[in-house]
Structures
1.
Amino acid sequence: MDIELKLIRNTLIIRLKGEFDMLKAEKIRRQIDERLQDDQVRNLVFNLEKVSFVDSSGLGVIIGRYKKVKEKDGNMYIVGAQPVVKKILVLSGINKLVPLFKNEQEIMKV
Amino acid sequence: MGIKNYVHFEFSSLPENVSFARACVGAFASQLDYTLDDIEEIKLVVSEAVSNSIIHGYDNKTNQKIEITVTINEDRSLEIIIKDYGKGIENIEKAMEATYSSDPSRMGLGFTFMKSFTDEMDILSKPGEGTCVRLKRNFTNEQKEAFS
Ligand SMILES: Nc1ncnc2c1ncn2[C@@H]1O[C@H](COP(=O)(O)OP(=O)(O)OP(=O)(O)O)[C@@H](O)[C@H]1O
Ligand SMILES: [Mg+2]
């Protein structure tokens, strides 16, 4: 699984690619948490456009980061979830806490 | 109601094998007239059960054995059995509760997903001996139509 991190002002954009399961979860969690230690990083955007599979291990990383961001009084967004991935997000209830957007440009509008 | 087809395989409890296991079961299940959505759901439940065996059953030890048997019955239902010889579950009722996890960093969603995407779920487990999860998906009416 590929991960691309990009900081735009105080928002860290996390672009993931591939299958987000237990094999990748730990490494991705570590990389994000490292960046979250930086006070400058307040908000997170998970870009899941290129994620073809997610299970509870991947979801655990996403939900866990939401809690961390809230502790920093920041915001989190999820963009580009494919129907298969979206179904899992909705079933977990995270969509009630974290707004889902079509793409990164849509967040900029709000 | 005899057995129509089955596969049985075993593999070591490595995180790398989780994607292998779900892809295998998904490929086998595609003999039935499943939609891509169905196959994705089947892959998810396998991923959950196998991840649980590695993470909880074997505490992430990598040289342990996981077995999977997938059966397509005469009535075109699909049955998946995932078995480990790990530490087992003390309280199955509690383990099945949504959002219960013995690990505070996890969400406790695995069994909820397995239940949501199958018609039957049974868990056999004995502390110190291991866990066996049986999942069954019935052949749906929509599939019957597509098949006729
Ligand atoms: N194969 C297993 N061996 C031992 N214990 C298990 C096994 N499978 C599940 N459990 C126990 O059942 C609990 C609930 O499992 P479930 O998959 O629902 O949640 P989780 O694995 O803790 O979290 P998540 O699946 O969201 O990552 C686990 O926390 C664990 O204590
Ligand atoms: Mg689990």
2.
Amino acid sequence: MTTDPVLVVEDLKMHYVTRAGTVRAVDGVSFAVARGQSLGLVGESGCGKSSIAMTLLKLLPDNARLVSGSIILNGVDLTTLSEDQMRAHRWDRISMVFQAAMNSLDPVYRVGDQIIEALEAHSASAGRDAMERVRELFDLVSLDPTYIRRYPHEYSGGMRQRAIIAMALACEPDIIIADEPTTALDVIVQDHILREMQAIQRSLNMSMIYISHDMAVIAEVCDVVGVMYAGKLVEFGPTTEVYARPIHPYTKALMSAFPSVRGEKHDLTTLPGEPPDLLDLPAGCAFHPRCAYATDECRTSIPPTVQRGDHWATCWNPVDDLGGE
Amino acid sequence: MNVSVGIPASASLALVSAVNLAKRYPVSAGWFRRDRSFIHAVDGVSFDLMPGETLGLVGESGCGKTTTGRMLVRLTEPTDGQVLFKNQSGDLEDIAHLKGAPLKDFRRRAQMVFQDPYESMNPRRTIFDTVAEPLHVQKIGDHSERFERVSETLSMVGLTPPASFLFRFPHELSGGQRQRVAIARALVMEPSFVVADEPTSMLDISIRTGIMQLMNELADRLGIGYLYITHDLAVARYMCSRIAVMYLGKIVEMGDTEDVLQYPVHPYTKALLSAVPVPDPEATRDALSIKGSVSAPVDPLPRCRFYDRCPIADDYCRDNDHPPLEDKGAGRLAACHKA
Ligand SMILES: Nc1ncnc2c1ncn2[C@@H]1O[C@H](COP(=O)(O)OP(=O)(O)OP(=O)(O)O)[C@@H](O)[C@H]1O
Ligand SMILES: Nc1ncnc2c1ncn2[C@@H]1O[C@H](COP(=O)(O)OP(=O)(O)OP(=O)(O)O)[C@@H](O)[C@H]1O
Ligand code: SF4
Ligand SMILES: [Mg+2]
Ligand SMILES: [Mg+2]
């Protein structure tokens, strides 16, 4: 792996305008992804993970406003591209496994035909070659080849999710954004697909942004991890570092409450308090109403960045400073 | 109408009883092949669910979990077998025979949380209308009562403050928020039976734990029985007193959750447990002993459904029919010739 970045995101802000006010879903996010690298994005439901993904692909609903920032993919700033120019990049250079995967297949076409269409629109393979490629892709995601000729309604939930993964891989993009790609899959199929995706990633030097709530899957798949809270990245660093020595109290809470199938069955804990209201964010550090370490500064002032080598977090009271407890 | 077929003794206490349920779909093999092939999506599934009990249903993607759940709430008609449901006078009734008022009562008391939260939501209706709809259909409460009840249910599932969600549309929510609307919609009716199909798959640990606690509390307080379909064995461990493991349309193992997870008997259950990832970036796991590839259950041969992928199969497994689900000691049921 080289450190040459495929994607550089700088101060990205994307807000939704609603009748009740402005939802600050992506609120000043910066990060880079190196070629061949996997970045994991984790964070509470509703914190803005899918919004980042949709902003990177410029697939935004009408009420979304790109407020500021740049998205540089292979030297090209995607924010300056027209929709026509953008269409040439999608699938081919940057592709996505949507979170609502089950919904993103067209119900009236056979699944195989939908993948062939994506292939023919973006690459040279057509006819027999395309069919051959679809068979390969189905094998990769553990789908029986007889399903190539079936319609989406004949698929189970997890089968549809696998078809979408196959489609995202079809054109061998530079970077693939996978939004909860394996939530509907059993662990055996998940294991197989993750291994296959990692193999493809290595052979093509493809990069990946992997969004998941499953800390165990992130640990297996990702080289670096970013932790989001209320529209902002609050911690970022090499996965081994972040898991072993979290700096932000929110990250620490995420790590500790993990239920396991093995060992002693301990009581599950929840984070106290309520998820933040993105229409009306708390002042200072948005996490302060729920934070066990909060002090007066946290309630009034934006927290500083604490840097530990290539691992950083934004917090007034870094937990690793306090002896880790 | 009371059921006259042989009801197992334990079933008289049951809230829901599945008796030899089966669902076969004809396969559209193409224009020229007109010989009838069938997908055996669910193939002879039986179990009882007690009031207040949560039975976990786990298994391979495509093995028939959703189809089983849909048959239990009468959204899919079984090809064979029956679903018995305890009616208000405490008798078990075959739901296939319900009509009129008893059917309407069943529709209120048996709810499903869909795997795909979009499935139960009209994109043009607000969250308030979506969650209030079943109340409306069942003519429960006036507008202000419904408003109260919907707001309260939304806060219970962590959509707070409810005022900032009530008048949004489904596409204006995140994936996990939509999932919680689907849960709210099922619970707002105070049902007695809920099929929850991967209801928390998109939620982070903290919110998921909150929902699990809420569902458990409702089971204790209102006696709701759940069929909890999940891929997450850790969730099953915390939610379910019993667990059933399915493979290609068949239950292959069933027993107390903790026992099954600690001492799996069936080779498929063993493989499943060994594939659970661990939250430690330094850990490495060996390659699995079975392949991820899935065979669709089209016209299955009369042999163990797991034969092709089983690491311990022998000639006996090849030459004999699929093994029966039988007691292997201490109440553990498993379907394997060699267990
Ligand atoms: N079109 C929209 N209009 C208004 N608000 C929206 C819209 N889409 C999303 N939101 C809100 O923006 C916030 C971020 O949503 P997003 O889908 O990015 O969350 P997420 O981190 O992907 O969550 P999850 O893990 O639940 O999928 C949420 O609070 C959501 O309610
Ligand atoms: N309407 C249908 N027509 C034809 N085949 C179907 C239909 N619905 C489901 N099937 C098939 O029945 C089998 C079981 O599907 P089901 O949706 O019950 O699986 P599942 O266990 O819920 O899987 P997942 O975990 O992936 O959601 C699959 O092989 C599927 O392809
Ligand atoms: S019956 Fe035979 S093939 Fe089937 S699971 Fe048991 S050992 Fe494996
Ligand atoms: Mg999302
Ligand atoms: Mg399903």
3.
Amino acid sequence: MGKFWSFFFALVPILGIGLFVFAINDWAPIRGHWFPELISKSHVIDNLFNFIMYLTGAVFIGTSIVLAWIMVKYDGGSNKEPVIYSHGSHTLEVIWSIIPAVVLLFIAIYQMDAWANARMYRPTLSDGTEMPPHARVTGRQFEWKIQYPGKDGKLDTPDDLHLINDLHVPMDEDIVIRIESMDVLHSFFLPNLRVKQDVVPGMQQHIWFHAVKDGTYDIVCAELCGWGHYKMKGRLTVEPSREEFDKWLEKAYAEQETAQYSLDEE
Amino acid sequence: MSTTTIDSNSQSDGSSFSVGDFISKYIFSKDHKVIGIQFLFSTLLWFIVGGLLALGIRWQLAWPWTDMPVIGNMLFSAEGGQISPEFYTMLFTMHATVMIFLVIIPILAGAFGNFLIPLMIGADDMAFPTLNMLSYWFMWPAFICFSATFFCEGHGAQSGWTSYPPLSVANGDAQTFWLLGVTLVGVSSMLGSVNYMTTIIQMRAPGMTMFRLPMTIWAMFITALLQAFALPVLTAAGVMQLTDRMLGTGFFIPEGWIVNNAAMASGGGQPLLWQHLFWFYSHPAVYIMILPAMGMVSDIMPCFARKPLFGYKPMVYSICGIAGLGFVVWGHHMFVSGMHPTLGMTFMVATMMIALPSAVKTFNWLGTLHGAKIQYTTPMLFSISFVAMFVIGGLSGIFMAATPVDIFIHDTYFIVAHFHYVLFAGTAMAVFGAIYFWFPKMFGRMMNETLGKIHFALTFLFLNGTFFTMHILGAVGFPRRLADPYHYETFRHLLPMNQFMSVCAICMVSVQVIFAFNFIYSLFWGPKAGRNPWKANGLEWQAPSPPGHGNFDFQPIVYRGPYEYSSPYSEEDYYPQTTPPQDGVDESGDGHH
Ligand code: HEM
Ligand SMILES: [Cu+2]
Ligand SMILES: [Cu+2]
């Protein structure tokens, strides 16, 4: 029975790795079952994921092969050798403690820069001061309120532009977004930019990214915020240039003003 | 409290030990074995509830907003047999709650901890039998509170099993019952924990030194310590959330907080405080949910390998290492919560290091099988599968411990894959193995091996079909807890894969009928088991099956560790802990080098 069970257990690594190979190479019938299109200048999260995947993949394949081999070789039904009466090996324990320890420490140190770039080093202006937010995104059940500072570059002034679920940014620029919540926790998730940050009522936070491809993408809420959590969907539009973005901003602002006047007249 | 009393009169049926009627023997029993079995039956019943809740989740993810055939109308006739977003939120909240608080934790500590600790250390009962009885009876108010959540207005508890405020503070009455339920489960665990620590320290049979304890007992001991130190924090946090809800305090509520367009009076609190307190308990709790399983697997494996456990002491030390480090990694659940990034970095390093003792354990299990004569019995298959599956869950942990990667995969199906590999493919499979292994001791009868193997094979296949695929959904960024993920263009094309997973999940739950049948049938009609059907070494196998009240019909004296299989000092390929050594033979160094 050893052969049968060994094969049976080996099905998981065989089919599992097969699944990953199909997904990574985007093969039918599971097209699109891997990372969504990356539109960020930085590839570091994808690269780090891949690095850990190859490393852990090697460990997974290694232990799976050892297990499969042991299950055949030491099957009590066919193994005629006497049992190796052993309580362990000091040397082996030392080896298999130190090697993983070194590898794990290496991963830990190796990724610190990426984390610091994503969370600590906010982009700066040419004069070295912190870049001001391009927009403020405020989560509330179940929509994203988006506020652009307008011409004066300052939030909470009369020339601000207010929109719902509609975030526009220019391409090829560092963008800082200020994120807040009005009610409960939400999480501001941009799958294509590998950005995710919980928004917490009472806290002001900033996230930043640098998009290198224009188009429209999903803004996902990734933290449970109530029954309507699933429909808290926003749209991120990356404009091909700063000019295009300004044009859009002007138009959207004009629309807001006319809507405002017609409201006032009523 | 009597340490290892010899009750020379006690017979195997225990009739002379316990006086009293049926009620005191089977309902309000103080016998650790009866209490263990009460825990076992209760948790297995809740396992069915938890499984059905999971099927509800899988139904919605595969066939969103469609009528559920047959049972849909029974469960939610108000919505015409469809799952509403509120109902879906309740489903995943209560699935996790039931599985964690009413199945995994009480089945490990309550059922197996209770049943095995006195038997494996050679004691006649727990140190505090009345406390032990209370630890079971405190589960009942908890059962009632959790059941009550289902009947509260607005479809029951809806804050997730993590109950993050402010949402949980704003949610309806069900949340109050939920918090009471968690607190009561905590009281039960705490009573058990005190008892286990005292019993293991005080009541070991003569000769049972700490380093002759079976791994199960070491694991239960460390688990009890974890409970004792971590639980008070959860209880305190739960009470704080209750007062936020009911008395208008503001521990977790920030200034100027508005929900449903109405400002809340209180304020000045921090929502992240809850997350710190919650995970300070709940990260150690994930080890509470796996260490006993690791211990039981470490006892089952040598028995069917007919070979000593490889690296007993490293195994003990790595359990201690996991437990110690387990107290300083809780922040890995909060990398993207808004916690300060520097703090995230320290939690990241600690989390990376906790993978190390897990790796050491895995290598030692493989070392145990190397050079063995493996018997592929049902308990052994479940145990080997525990190791194979734990490898997957441990390795996926490393992805999430890497903070930058976690930015992308946090709260996606990658995490869902991770914890189902450690908790279902790991712990639940080990629990199945343990049931097949100790069933003869519990009930005096054997379970059917053929049915057991069929149950194992089908569960193993379908669980991987359900959970392995979750990894690649996670890589797409597929978020957890969404009633309709297909609302987003990014995830719309993932529907067929989800349907495949749901079919696997339905099959996985269905094949448990084989287990239920085998369990119930064997309970009454299984072949009688002798004292030691597996030819195992542990003390429990020297007692009658099932042991009477008072456990042993002789005074057990321990001469060696529990893993002396194929020892050159023994004629047979096993060497029970109680068998006296032959005259003049020196079994050097306790049998351990
Ligand atoms: C090799 C060791 C392990 C490492 C490095 C590890 C790491 C992690 C990390 C970083 C997370 C947070 C992911 C996120 O939310 O973004 C996580 C979640 C989780 N882990 Fe592990 N883990 C390990 C072992 C285990 C074990 C043994 C168990 C349980 C028996 C477990 C149960 C869980 C659970 C239940 C969650 C999810 C909680 C939730 O958000 O609902 N983990 N793990
Ligand atoms: Cu949300
Ligand atoms: Cu954790």
